[in-house]
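REQUEST FORM: STRUCTURE PREDICTION
Request ID: SP-0412
Submitted by: Lab K.M.
Chain count: 1
Length (residues): 262
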Amino acid sequence: WHFMNSWAECARGEPISMPPMHARSLLKVENPSTDKAMLNLEHVEDEERVVDKGNHIKLNTFRFRKGTIDMLKTKVHEKNTSYEMICAHIWKHTTKARRHMRDKKVGFISIVNMRGRVEPPLGDAYFGNALMWTIAVATVGELEDEDLAATTQRIHRSILACNTDAFYSFLYWLEVYDRDAIFKTCMLNGARIRASSSPNFPIFRLDFGWGRPYVARCPSAEDAGKIIFFPGSDVRGNIDVVLALPMEIMHRLESDDAFTNP
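STATUS: Completed
RESULT:
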């Protein structure tokens, strides 16, 4: 958010209110080795990716209104965020729509901003990627049998595990195995879905000189299983979720009344 706001300030011809900090040495790892490298994403079984053979990827936007979010929050722990809860809701219902066998292991990947999670904190002005990928894992049967609170806790625990030690293990992994390998290792498929962005980004406060936006949307998604969050544009507290799925699976999800009207 801070860097988008800086770009908007530049576009308006104004001074930057938060100058970026280009301190690359803060995340430098010395003597990368496989002993120190760890990636908590490797134990979800792969599945052949969906190819475009009459099964096109469909992109759809689902709106979670504040009243619905408040109602769902009564089913989970107070310490859980709206992000974690909605992710759990999506994970349960997309897994149902995919019609996997009950013993199949599936995963939910979150991309976590580590600026304030490492010691010492990097600070909001740190410029560049300071992200970590983490995964919550369950079998299809577990997701079917447990309640929303239990699934939300799986995601919560995976994010909570993103601490200083885990982050530097992740950085060692990137140095040892090539940074582009993260995308190959975390390839989205029927066994994995991935959330990015955040409903807390104040995108509707941005002004590049022609006024604030009325709506924010994702025009495309490169893979089925990708989830992108936006704050609702109409009412404070609403959350819009853009979801990419194969056409047939998306139709099942759209027909799932427990998903669209929980």
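NOTES: The CA atoms of residues 7 and 18 lie 11 Å apart.
Reviewed by: T.R.
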